[in-house]
Each structure stands twice: as C-alpha cells, then as structure tokens.
Amino acid sequence: MSSPSIVWFRDDLRLADNPALRAAIDRDEPIIALYLLDEESPDMRPLGGAARWWLHHSLVSLGERIAERGGQLILRRGAAADVVPQLVTDTGAGAVFWNRRYGGPGRTVDADLKASLRDDGVEVASFAASVLFEPWTVTTGSGTHFSVFTPFWKACQALPSPRAPLPEPRELTGPARRVASDDLDDWALLPTRPDWAGGLRETWEPGEPAARARLREFLREDLDDYARGRDEPGRDVTSRLSPRLRWGEISPYTVWHETVETGGGAKFLSEVGWREFAWHTLYHFPKLATKNLRPEFDAFPWPRLKPSHLEAWQRGETGVALVDAGMKELWHAGIMHNRVRMVTASFLIKNLMIDWRRGEEWFWDCLVDADEASNPFSWQWVAGSGADAAPYFRIFNPELQREKFDKHDEYVRRWAPEHLDGGAPEPIVDLKASRNAALDAYEKVKRAPR
C-alpha cells in the first residue's frame, strides 16, 4: 500500500522552486496537491476583494499545470486543524509538506498541526520558500532584530548568497483513487453583484507562466531604467512583480538569481530587501496591522472621523490631482505606483487626520498584492509609527510631488483627467492648514510619557 505525500500549497502557487513539492517528489510516493482556503482558524485575516479575484485565477492556472503533469489540485475549505488531519486519514497519507509562513496566526496553526500530525506518526516537514533570509537568521550584534533598513540589508548581504532555485517538475504522480475536491466556483471568490473586476481583467493575467514571462520582460526591457525612473508614476519601468511574489507564483530566489545574472539591478534588489524587511518585522511584531509598532504613537490624538473625507479619499474625489489619480488607479487596476502610495497614504493620515489603520484596511481590500507584512508595514512607515519610519513631520506635499515626479502630467492625465480639463472638485482640505494641524497633534505624541 502506498502512503501518499500531501503538499499543502499556501502563498506559493507555483511548481518551480517549490521546496515542499520537491520533498514530496523525492519521497517517491503519489502526491496529493492541496489548497486550503482557511478563514476559520483563530485570528486568520479574511482576504480582500481584489485578492480573492487573483486567488481564483491563480488557482485555475495552478490546477491546469498540475493536471498537465498527471496530478490533481485538491481544493478544501475550513480550519486547517480539522481539514488536514481528515485528509490524511481519508487518503492514508504518510507525509505532509508545506512552505513556511511568518505571520503570527499562520505560524501558530502550523506549529500545532505539525506537532499533532507527528504524534500520529505522520512525517511532517516545512521549508523556506517565500523569503530569502528567514527572520531568525538576521540579527544585530546583540542578537535582537533590526529596526532600521540599511543595517538590516547589509547584514543580509553579509550572509551566504540565497540558494539556487529548484527546477520545475515535468511529471507528478497522483493517487490511484481520485480525491474529492471542492468546486472552485462554489467558493465565490469572483465579484458578481456587481462585477467590478473589469479593470483587473484588463490589467493582469494571474498564474506562474505569466509571472515568469513578466520577470524576463522586466529584466530585458526595464531593469536598466529602473533606478532612474522608478519614482515617476507616468513611466512604465517598475517590475509589476509584487502580486506575483505575494501569491508565490514566482519565488524571491528566482527573482534574485535571475537579476544577479544580468550583472546589475542593485537598486531593484534593495527593494526586494525592503520586502524582506517587512516580513521580518511582522515575524517579530505579529500585530503589525492593528497596533503601533512604536507605542508612543498610541498617544496620537486622532480627531473624530469625518466619513465624507474618508469616502472622498477612497473614491479619488479629494480635489488633489495626484491623490485622486492614485486612488482611481487602485480601484481600476488593483495596484498603485509606489511613489503614489506614499503620497495618498500621507494625505489620508496627515492632511485628513484619519487613522492609518483605515487606509490599511482599504488597501487590503483593493490591492491584488496586499499581504499581511508589506501592507501594514508600509502604512506604519508613512504614519511614522513603524520600523525605520519616516518622521511624522515628513509630510508629502502632493502638489510638489506631482511637479517633481509627474511634471508632464502623464499619470494624472491617464487616471484623473478631470484635473486637467477643469472638472475636478475643489480640494476637501487646505494642504497648508491641514499640515500645520497634523504637526500640532504630533507635538502631543512627543510630550507623551514614555
């Protein structure tokens, strides 16, 4: 009797450079490829709408690629502590493999499940696949975690080079008997009433093949201009790999080694390092999405929320050109240029005086690349409450940012042309007065007891 290996896919929806899958292949038993939609385990954060759209299409792609190689992608829904052991029992599996997670709830689920499965005599192993350097391997001289990026990245670069990517399997042996699977359509991941995903379909093709193609295209056509042009939202020189990395359609090891092989890309790789820094911060501070990393910011006197201001920001109707353009790009394409992300976030926090957590929640729902590390990490960075954060008094002036980085209005013309033809609303706040009000509020944080 065979004892199949279960490969539990999570945010690693790929066949190439997938250590958990490779371990199952090396075990030389039939492979049960599992994707589990777990929104029931304690503190597990439900996916946002744009993320659910991406997940649906990425699972379609993964399922097709597994089927082409002789296997089957099994879909199940529920709490991992219930679903995985039941699948082991039903299939007689002798091993379960997965790639590690670094957020608090996921780590707790994985640790408990690993212990219980091993108690039942099942082989269990987990692997590094989504970060280049695992959080416990990068520490300061005193053994603590880094809170500033530059020394963090220097410490990473002083470590041995990340391992080479693993090859993609050509064949996968499935179990002798077909295993029951959910129907993906029954998960209702796609929006229907209304179907607001037209812009996502127009912009993106989820799946591992498209991810590999985009990396090759970026390295061939855009890498040389990346360092010079990455801050200009009207230029199309960014990698657009963030959702690919978020869903694990391509691994950071593949991105790293193929970039290094070009002989350049230091600035781009430092942005990969910033992603690493976010995940390391989340590992050491699991409540990153809800709690100020710097506790002195708990004293910040957020005023009573003005729903009309929040709604105007969400809709891209603030009367401020670069902000409105960014928010409309977000709604249409599920993405936003990074420079504009900083500007829109600063405007919400420091001009509208709205708690950064409100903005983080909106981006979580609207971004196809929103993950549990980078999204809250970036919001806290702009707010001044996070790791290596911009000081609170650094307030992006959206008009000056437009003049500097979109001086020919290519970006504004594409996403908010009403600001060029006289049809834009009046600004909902005065930029100078609201900036001064934010600085006055910050003085209360500085005076708060430590």
TrEMBL record:
The keyword Flavoprotein applies. The lineage of its organism: Bacteria, Bacillati, Actinomycetota, Actinomycetes, Micrococcales. Binds 1 FAD per subunit. Keywords: Chromophore, FAD, Flavoprotein. This is Deoxyribodipyrimidine photolyase. FAD binds at Y226, T238, S239, R240, L241, S242, F268, D369, A370, D371. Its cofactor is FAD. The record marks W302, W356, W379 as: Electron transfer via tryptophanyl radical. Belongs to the DNA photolyase family. The keyword Zinc-finger does not apply. Residues 3-132 form the Photolyase/cryptochrome alpha/beta domain. One of its GO terms (molecular function) is DNA binding. GO terms for biological process: nucleobase-containing compound metabolic process; response to light stimulus; response to stress. Pfam families: DNA_photolyase, FAD_binding_7. It comes from the Bacteria.
